[in-house]
């Protein structure tokens, strides 16, 4: 007989009815026995492939490869972060500007004083009357007129050249590796560095290096070794030294090697 309160049917989760604080186990039942019910077997759902490569590519995360939300270095800095056009340094031209301003101030001041004196009933300055008479009486093809015009034209051209050229020819512009920072190198310092590099070459007795904005010239004397070998080693050492200077525009290189003069 079946105890009261027990229907004999299995619990949906496969276990018998459980009371509070007690554990009951399902009794084995024989198929076809009275009071027993057979449940249909549910087919198992096939699980996905365990191999991550077979499951296909994983979509990239929006927070970056590390998941920390930081962008890669190349994206954070941007392409060409340290690149940019490196222009030359412009001179302030304090001395020419000061001289021109002082001359203009003195000339306009004297003319205004003379004009105010004439308006007040006094006689004008003698030099102004003489200059006015000379300009009124002389012809345009006069030698003094042509000479004065040439001097004034030369001064005006000189001022235009000073205003349109950057100046600071002794300063070489360096490569802008850091954004917002401009650096320069004196030509004398660059020549000293390259001279030290040239003296390290075997066979070089003395060397003279001159550096300009477009070319580096080295004149060396070799007291031993073949001149062609010394010239090749010197050329390689100076080219490596020029590359290490970090200049914005790499100058050309001219190397001359000769034997020292014979002593008599």
UniProtKB/TrEMBL annotation:
<protein>
    <recommendedName>
        <fullName>DUF6286 domain-containing protein</fullName>
    </recommendedName>
</protein>
<feature type="domain" description="DUF6286">
    <location>
        <begin position="154"/>
        <end position="258"/>
    </location>
</feature>
<feature type="compositionally biased region" description="Low complexity">
    <location>
        <begin position="34"/>
        <end position="56"/>
    </location>
</feature>
<feature type="compositionally biased region" description="Low complexity">
    <location>
        <begin position="63"/>
        <end position="73"/>
    </location>
</feature>
<keyword id="KW-1133">Transmembrane helix</keyword>
<feature type="transmembrane region" description="Helical">
    <location>
        <begin position="143"/>
        <end position="165"/>
    </location>
</feature>
<feature type="region of interest" description="Disordered">
    <location>
        <begin position="1"/>
        <end position="82"/>
    </location>
</feature>
<dbReference type="Pfam" id="PF19803">
    <property type="entry name" value="DUF6286"/>
</dbReference>
<dbReference type="InterPro" id="IPR046253">
    <property type="entry name" value="DUF6286"/>
</dbReference>
<feature type="transmembrane region" description="Helical">
    <location>
        <begin position="95"/>
        <end position="113"/>
    </location>
</feature>
<keyword id="KW-0812">Transmembrane</keyword>
<keyword id="KW-0472">Membrane</keyword>
């Amino acid at each position: 007989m079946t105890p009261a309160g027990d229907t004999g049917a299995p619990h949906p989760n496969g276990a018998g009815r459980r009371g509070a604080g007690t554990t009951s186990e399902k009794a084995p039942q024989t198929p076809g026995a009275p009071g027993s019910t057979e449940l249909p077997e549910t087919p198992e759902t096939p699980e996905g492939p365990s191999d991550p490569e077979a499951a296909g590519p994983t979509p990239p995360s929006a927070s970056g490869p590390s998941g920390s939300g930081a962008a890669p270095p190349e994206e954070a800095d941007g392409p060409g972060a340290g690149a940019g056009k490196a222009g030359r340094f412009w001179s302030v031209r304090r001395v020419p500007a000061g001289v021109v301003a002082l001359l203009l101030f003195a000339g306009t001041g004297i003319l205004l004083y003379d004009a105010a004196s004439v308006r007040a009933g006094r006689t004008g300055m003698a030099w102004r009357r003489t200059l006015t008479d000379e300009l009124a009486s002389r012809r345009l093809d006069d030698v003094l007129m042509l000479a004065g015009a040439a001097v004034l034209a030369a001064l005006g051209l000189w001022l235009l050249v000073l205003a349109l050229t950057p100046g600071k020819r002794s300063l070489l512009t360096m490569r802008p590796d850091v954004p917002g920072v401009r650096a320069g190198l004196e030509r004398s310092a660059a020549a000293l560095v390259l001279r030290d590099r040239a003296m390290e070459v075997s066979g070089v007795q003395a060397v003279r290096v001159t550096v300009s904005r477009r070319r580096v010239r080295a004149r060396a004397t070799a007291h031993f070794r073949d001149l062609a070998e010394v010239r090749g080693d010197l050329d390689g050492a100076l080219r490596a030294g020029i590359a290490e200077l970090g200049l914005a525009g790499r100058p050309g290189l001219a190397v001359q090697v000769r034997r020292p003069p014979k002593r008599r």
